[in-house]
Write a structure and sequence with these properties.
Elements (H helix, E strand, L loop, with lengths): L1 E2 L6 E8 L3 E4 H5 L6 H8 L3 E4 L6 H16 L8 E5 L10 H9 L5 E5 L5 H15 L5 E7 L10 H4 L5 E8 L6 E10 L7 E2 L11 H5 L6 E2 L1 H22 L9 E4 L4 H11 L10 H4 L6 H11 L8 E8 L3 E8 L1
Parallel strand pairs: 5-6, 5-7, 12-13
Antiparallel strand pairs: 1-9, 2-8, 2-9, 3-4, 7-8, 9-14, 10-11, 13-14
Helix pairs in contact: 3-4, 8-9
The structure holds coenzyme A.
Organism: Thermanaerovibrio acidaminovorans (strain ATCC 49978 / DSM 6589 / Su883)
Family: Belongs to the thiolase-like superfamily. FabH family.
Pathway: Lipid metabolism; fatty acid biosynthesis
Length: 332
C-alpha cells in the first residue's frame, strides 16, 4: 500500500470512446448456444460494442485521449508520459502508446504500453501517480483501450458473451491542479494463477504454426469459474485491508468503480462491505467487460454525469489475467 506524498497526484480530466457497432444478447443467441436470460442472470451484461472492420485500438485510445485532454485543459505538448493499459494492442510492437504519442503530437512525451490483464490501466494510474508525486513527471496521459473482439473466439460461449471494445482515458497532474486527488493505491498479483486467463498463440512459448491455429491458441481462453472463485475469495479482504490502511471505513467511500466484469462479483463485494447497490458505478450492462478500459470508462461516466461531488471519495479496483489486482483511492 502506498500513500502519496510529495507533490501528490490528481485526475485532472477524463474521456472515453466506444466503437459504433452494438451487439445484443439476442444477436449472440443467433451465434452460439446461449440465451439472453443466462447472460443477464450470470453476468448482468445486455449489450456490448464491437469495433467495426479497420478500427484499431489506437483509434479508440486517441478519441478517449482527446476528450480527456480537452476536459483537463492540457495540451498534448505538455505531456511528459503516455501509458496505455491494453491486452489487445494493434501489434505487439510498436506499442499503442507510441502510435498515440505520434498522432497527438505529444512531442515531449515518452510512451509505453502496460500489459497486465484488465488491471493494466489501474497499474498505469498508480505508476503515473508515483512519478508525478515524486516530481519526475508533471502531466501523464493514462489510457485503457481494447479491441478484444478481434482476439475472441466468436464460437466459444464461455468468452464471447463477456467482452466488449472501448477506451477510457485520464490526464493526471500534481495535486495542486485540482480534480480527483490520488490518496493512495495498492497493487498485487498472484502469478501462480497465470493459467486462468490466457492468450497463448503466436509468441515465444507457442510460435505461430498450423498447430497453434488449429488449437485456437490465437483466442482468449478463460477458466471462468476459477476466475470467479479467485476474485470472490481475494478481492473483498484485499479491499477491506486497503481501506483500513488508508484509515477509512467502507461507508466513507461514496462511489465504487469496480472492474466491470460481472454484476454478481460487484454485488458480492458490496454485500460483504454492507453497502447498498447504488454505491457502485455500473455500466457493464451496456458495454460488457472492456478489460483495461473498464474502470476508466466507468470513472468518466460517473464524473461527466455529475454523480461525483466535491469531497466524494471514489475507490477504483480491478483484477485480471496474471492474476493481477489492485485498488486506487481518489478524493474529488
Ligand atoms: N450461455 C449458456 N450457458 C453457458 C454459457 C453461455 N454463454 N457459458 C457457460 N455456460 C454453461 C457452462 O457450460 C456450464 O454448463 P454445464 O453446467 O452444463 O457444464 C454452466 O453454464 C455453468 O458454467 P459456469 O462456468 O460454472 O458458470 P458461472 O456461474 O461460473 O458463470 C461466468 C460463468 C464466466 C459468467 C463467471 O464464472 C464469471 O463471470 N467469471 C469471471 C470471469 C471474468 O471476470 N473474467 C474476466 C477477468 S478480467
Amino acid at each position: 500500500m502506498s500513500k502519496l506524498g510529495g507533490f501528490g497526484a490528481t485526475v485532472m480530466g477524463t474521456g472515453m470512446a466506444i466503437p459504433g457497432r452494438v451487439v445484443t444478447n439476442q444477436d449472440l443467441e443467433r451465434m452460439v448456444d446461449t440465451s439472453d436470460q443466462w447472460i443477464v442472470e450470470r453476468t448482468g451484461i445486455r449489450t456490448r460494442y464491437v469495433a467495426e472492420e479497420g478500427v484499431l485500438t489506437t483509434d479508440l485510445a486517441e478519441a478517449a485521449s482527446r476528450e480527456a485532454l480537452r476536459n483537463a485543459g492540457v495540451a498534448p505538448e505538455d505531456l511528459d508520459l503516455i501509458l496505455v493499459g491494453t491486452n489487445s494492442p494493434d501489434t505487439l510492437f510498436p506499442a499503442v502508446a507510441a502510435k498515440l504519442q505520434g498522432r497527438l503530437g505529444a512531442v515531449r512525451a515518452g510512451a509505453a504500453d502496460v500489459q497486465s490483464g484488465c488491471t493494466g490501466s489501474l497499474y498505469a494510474m498508480a505508476m503515473a501517480a508515483g512519478g508525478i508525486a515524486s516530481g519526475a513527471f508533471r502531466h501523464v496521459l493514462v489510457v485503457g483501450a481494447e479491441v478484444l473482439s478481434r482476439m475472441i473466439d466468436w464460437t466459444d460461449r464461455n468468452t464471447c458473451v463477456l467482452f466488449g471494445d472501448g477506451a477510457g482515458a485520464v490526464v493526471m497532474g500534481p495535486a495542486s491542479c485540482g480534480g480527483g486527488r490520488v490518496e493512495g493505491f495498492s497493487l498485487r498479483a498472484d502469478g501462480t494463477k497465470h493459467d486462468l486467463i490466457t492468450f497463448m498463440g503466436g509468441l515465444v512459448e507457442h510460435p505461430a504454426s498450423e498447430e497453434t491455429l488449429a488449437a485456437g491458441m490465437h483466442h482468449v481462453k478463460m477458466k471462468g469459474n476459477d476466475v470467479f472463485k479467485f476474485v470472490n475469495r481475494e478481492i473483498p479482504p484485499f479491499i477491506d485491508g486497503f481501506l483500513e490502511e488508508m484509515g477509512l471505513s467502507p461507508e466513507e467511500v461514496a462511489h465504487w468503480v469496480f472492474h466491470q466484469a460481472n454484476w454478481r462479483i460487484i454485488d458480492g463485494v458490496l454485500k460483504r462491505m454492507g453497502l447498498p447497490e447504488d454505491r457502485a458505478v455500473v455500466n457493464l450492462d451496456r458495454y460488457g467487460n472492456t478489460s483495461s478500459a473498464s474502470i476508466l470508462m466507468a470513472l468518466h461516466e460517473a464524473v461527466s454525469s455529475g454523480r461525483v461531488s466535491k469531497g466524494d471519495r471514489v475507490l477504483m479496483s480491478s483484477f485480471g489475467a496474471g492474476m493481477t489486482y489492485g485498488a486506487l483511492l481518489l478524493q474529488y
